[in-house]
Amino acid sequence: MAGPYADEDFPADPYPGTVPPTSYVHADGVGYALVRGRVQDEPLDGWLAARGAAPTTGRLPVLAYGSNRNPSKISWLRATLGLGAEPVVVLRVRTRGLAAVWAYGLRTRDGARPAVLAAVPGVEEDHVVWLATPEQVAVLDACEGAGPGGDGRYRLARLHTGEIRTRDVGSGPTRVDGVLAYLGGTPARRPLLVDGAMVRCADVPQEAARALTGVPAVGDGVVATTLPPRTR
Question: Can you tell which superkingdom this protein's organism belongs to (predicted)?
């Protein structure tokens, strides 16, 4: 399946939703496959320019390891939090030394157990990186409780732990530096410890994760520099 990826083919529920098999650019409720730097046979920056969108230069790399990878969630951000019509560039990446693990607290909205990022030496996982405009990052801040007046569930930080490389954008895997990510900011969003161990999202599905019991970890092990909230 190489796109286009309609939102209805990638439902957001159950959390964290399903993810297209390639990098993609999301616009107008559709994900257009991005493979080896090209979208619909155009170079990515040319495709963006033809739509009056910001180029990749100046966009910020933001690791998405939960529902923000999902096309339907992106449309929800547009409709609910004012993400706007600007295309969202979503790159498939392989992380090393970082993992999505289940958080201690459940989501108020639907009772799902959300993901949080943790340092897990030697582990490799597949996630995505948004190449986000500053305005898009401000919307993500609002969504994750990191914006002005938010509840602080997550905090935006620049990662110093782990390694992140693209999977299908250029001629080969390319390291992405200066990546931002939302880390747990309250006890409810610290990693869940079950019998003293964190639980990777890749190992336990959402249905089973909801029923887990344990205690919040003291920390996530991630070395990062917290950034100030962005004003929308």
Answer: Bacteria
